[in-house]
Structure prediction request, 273 residues.
Amino acid sequence: MSVWFITGISRGLGRALAEAALRRGHIVVGTTRSGESDLAAADGALRTVALDVGVPEHAAAAVAAAHEFAGRIDVVVNNAGYGLLGAIEETSPAEAEHVFDVNFFGALGVVRAALPVLRAQRSGHIVNISSIAALAPGAGSGLYAAAKAALGGMSEALEQEVAPLGIKVTAVEPGQFRTDFLSGHSRRNTATAIDDYAATSGSVTALEGKDGKQFGDPARAAEVILDAVADPEPPMHLVLGADALDRTRANADRLLGDLRRWEAASAATAFPA
Ligand SMILES: NC(=O)c1ccc[n+]([C@@H]2O[C@H](COP(=O)([O-])OP(=O)(O)OC[C@H]3O[C@@H](n4cnc5c(N)ncnc54)[C@H](OP(=O)(O)O)[C@@H]3O)[C@@H](O)[C@H]2O)c1
Prediction:
């Protein structure tokens, strides 16, 4: 039995993760913005605490409440987040800042609040829910991709810093999953639309039409995440969904192609011996 701290259990993947963890007999401390949850759980198995991850300084109180309730924290899942659709030029500074506040600085706040607990325990696992957009960004969600890529980059460095302290880190990169992610309840669109981007960003903002039709099942994704955490050698990156696998491979091939094509020039940039 482990203690899971999961942000954003009101809906979608976070809720599926909380349900799966509870089914496996774990204790869940889940956050919602209201501090309330209608999840069913055995007595003492679930505690809900209030957290708007867009206010990172509030993370300390939520993590402290979890620690006080359960006496330890084994798994920290930074799940709360939302997508912003629109071209880079269409994105206002305030829209860009907010998507980073929630998707990157929100997670960073939770990580910073949880690390003293995990370091004292000399154990724990931080799971950052990133996105396929971080590994294979596309037109129309550049600032969301940038925030998730920041989360992935931070996760890779963090993994090297905390591995000697007994703490593991995994970045999860889901493709399209059937949650509220693309619904008007969650997704945001930039207030500005520029005609010149109709064929690129504009066609991606049409993703809204896929709401409710994504083939990824969040309950199955949650089970895979729990399996990965239970694995003695958990992955640094966990790509979820056949679409995400395809996009990751295509982007990796493109990167390797660029390396090969420019290898000689790239290697010839050192001072002469
Ligand atoms: N579904 C996908 O296709 C997909 C693909 C790649 C990555 N992801 C990532 O997966 C994670 C979960 O998303 P989802 O698909 O489950 O979407 P969702 O159904 O829209 O759920 C989003 C969750 O995040 C919470 N949240 C959003 N902003 C918040 C804030 N400022 N403070 C606290 N909680 C906040 C929501 O809480 P409220 O109920 O209070 O709004 C909700 O619990 C996100 O990080 C998302 O970027 C999803």
Notes: The pocket of NAP is lined by residues 8, 10-14, 32-33, 51-54, 79-83, 102, 129, 131-132, 174, 176-177, 179-181, 186, 214 (CB under 6 Å). The chain has a mean pLDDT of 96. The first strand starts at residue 3 and ends at 7. The helical segments are 12-23, 59-70, 93-121, 132-135, 142-162, 201-205, 218-230, 242-267.
